Each structure stands twice: as structure tokens, then as C-alpha cells.
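Table 4 source record.
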Amino acid sequence: MIQKREIQHTKIYQELDDKNRKYWFDFKQKKFLHNIDTFYYSVKLVEDFTNDSSDDSVLRFRKFFEQKKSILDSRYGQLVQIFFPGFDRSLNLCAGSYAGFFSIRLECPEWFDIFIAPSVPHGSDGGFSVTSEIVVQLRSYMLWMYGVHEAFERSYEYVKQICDYFGLHIAYCQENRIDYCWHSNYLSNPEKFFSPESFYKMRVDRFKDALIHTAKVGSEGYEIDYVSMGKRSDKVFIRIYLKSKEVIEKNYKPWFFKVWLFNGLINRYDLYCYEECYKKHSWQYLDTARLKYYSEYGSDPELREQCRDVVEGKVTMSPDTLHKLADTLTPKINLIMNVEYQTMRKHTKTYELVPFRDNSARETSKRIYDYLDNRKIIADYLTFYVFRLVKPEGDSNKSRRDLCAFWTALRSCRMIDVNVRPKDVKLIRQYCRQLNSDIMKKRVINAAVTLGIYTRGINNDNVVQDCVEALCQLNDNDIHDANRYKQKKARQFNSSELADTYVSSVTHEYQIVNINTGEVSTDIIP
């Protein structure tokens, strides 16, 4: 968390009026935001799905997907759309599997994946199998936009409709893997907080060791961007990492920027800098992004010009000098850390769930609702008995020390379904499309310029000419391949998330004209 006094000492803050100071730099201090970030659940069917099954419904199911998978193979792994009665959209049959034998993967892009096993192994006594036939993975976008309850219910409706179509019956469903996460702007200096000499004084747990990853900053500095305890295959795996850096470097999930902004973890200045880094796909661009902000909103003309020269690459600076200049002109960025507990079924099945409410009417999904009702108790157990951080000094027995302030604040965070208001979901959807389309547009323009150099050598043509020439080189085969590619990509996106255009009633300045007929082409550029 960036202190108010640190912001006030920067030049940009002193130059702005009170209204703009509040607009750009206002945020909630020591803020935590909790959610379930990953959720897998498994579905057990009544029918016999072992290799030697003679159940008519199972045989019909296998024959159907054998035919669909042969089509998938003939298309060299391209998606095959599957629609069942009752669906409000088709699902994509994709290549890939889960845990080896869940080899049928049905995807609802950006929302969830349904993995189905054509056959499951016999039980240990050679009889009925205890292995679930279906595993569903809810994606983080759906969990953050709609909340865990609604995300589960939407996906489970698809599972039930698939079963109904083949005459299959669900015995029960249960949690498989659940990740609890806490996003926070609490720490302004993670390097100091998680330094080995400090971290080992605070941690109370039974893990053998911790993996601490550092990244170089400048010539002498460093940042600690990842701490983990345990293994991913363990009952519980814990990792604490710089979430804002992950979003930028992996160049996906930009909607987190808006979620953080809506909940006060970052301010509009942070959002501006994060967006610039995201466009560049570079965390190291952060100081340059801060200078770009000053070049647009600062008042000193000489400093603005100096910042523009750095941003445009006319002037180069060492990382240390660049960082020092950025600190003088602009505030530091609120860093978002994520504390995450990955819990597996072999751990959660041991929980004695408290019956807070009667979920018997949920029938086959009763266990899921019972589990989610106990979410607060489970999180309290994980953040105290599995792993906790205490004050670095005090009782010689660390386990008797009080929790440190960071951990006390984390455990006090409200445990509710984090979801976004419907009108804000649309706003976030449009925001992500515009941000990603800006990146794609720049990539297309750069590719057109490079193509122009390849085809016409080093030239002085303007960029518009490069783009026009690139499109004019298309032949029938190129158009055919492009149409196939467009159809393929269209199936990889969620139709609900991309239903409408975010650009409306726009007149484009540049168009392509057929030099023989004078006709304006509307096929390539509208």
C-alpha cells in the first residue's frame, strides 16, 4: 500500500488541483479482496462406465463421442461444436484431457470446461468403480464475474442436460479442487516483508521449506515476486505472489485491473500505468509508463518533453536513473499481492461440515452447497492451522505469538461471493475488448510495416501505404484461409462475452478503392 505522504511529495501531485488529485490517486488503504479463484468439482454417475460395461446409455454415449472425436482428428485438432437439446449455446469439443483418462473435453470458452471419461477403472475389489466420470473446471473469469454459486449452477445445468440426453443419471457431485485467494494492496514493500530473514521469523506451518523467487530491479535492487510452500500435488499448496506482475507478464486476464479499481485496491493512476505495461507485455516498462503519465498530465514543459523523449526512445537512461526520475515525478504503484491456498479433495474430504442450512432439496449437488456454506470456517482453519504469519518477535515459541498486522487484516476480510454488477460486467467486457483490440491493432500495423520492408525493401512509404499494400497482396487462397481461421477463432470465444461490437456508428477515414473500377471495397475494410 502506498502511503499518502509518499504521493504528496511527488511533482505531479503538487501540480494537480484537488479535484484531479482525488480522481487519479484516491484508493482504499490496506484493502483485501477475497474470492474462490479456481473451482473443480467431480460428478459421479449411477451407470457402469467400466471397460466391460453393457449399459445401453453408456454405449450410446461412447458411440456418439467416438464419432465426434474422429471428426475432430480429421480436422487436425480444430474445434468441433456440439449442441444438445436444452442448451442455450453450443460447446466446443477440444483436444486435450484431464488426469489421463478424462479424454473428452467440452469447452464453454472463458466460463468452464467439462472433462468426461469414456471409461473408468474397476474398484479395488474388481467391482463397481468409485471413480467419478465427469470433472468440471470453472474458470477464474466466471468465478470473479458471477460468483462461485452462480458459476457452479450455470455449469451444472449443462452437465445435467448432457446426462439427460444420453439417459444417464447423476448419483452425486463433490468438490475436487478449490483455491482460496486474497488480493491485497496492503504491502508497499514485499521485498522487506518476505525477505528470508524476516519471513522465517514469522511463518508458522508444517511445510519443510519455502521457495522464494526474486527478480532483479536496477543494478542493486530486487523484488520478491513469488513465495510457495509445499508441492502442487500435495493436499494443500500455498503460494504468495505479485498478482499485478503476473497479469502483465502472462498478458491475460486484464479484467482484474477493473475489478481492483472497482474495489479500491488501485487508483486510476495505477490503472493507467498497468494498462501501458500490459500493452507492452512488459513489467519492466513500469517506470517508463509512469513517465508517460507525466508527459500527458504534468505541467512542467521541459520535464514533459524529457519524459516524451524517454517514452519514444529518443533518449536512453540506465534503469537506476529512470527509476529515480519516475519516483521524483510520479507516485509509486500500488502492488497487488495474492495469497492463495490450493486445496485438493484428499484434504477437503476430511472436513466435518457444519449443517448451517438444510440443503437436501439440492439433491445431487447437496455436498457442494454444504461445502460452500462452510467457506468461512474452512478459510479460518487454513489461515491459522495450516499456515499463518505471526509477529517476528515475542514468545520464543513462534506458535504462541500473535498474528502480524498483515495476517490479521487478511483473516478479517469478508467472506462473500465476489461478483460484479450486471452493468459493470458489460463495462469490464468492453474494457477488455478495447484493450486487447488496441494491442492487436498495433501488432497488425507492425506486421504490415515489416511485410512492406520484405516485399519492397527499405522504403520511405508511409504507414497507410504499408497497410494498404499488405491487404492488396491478398489472393483467393489467402482469403479462403483467413475465412477458415476466422471461423476457428469465433468458436474459441464466448458468444455472450462478444455479442455486440464496442465500436458503433464509426466512419473510417481510410478505405480501399479498386483502381480499375473506382469501386470502394467493403469486403476487406468496412
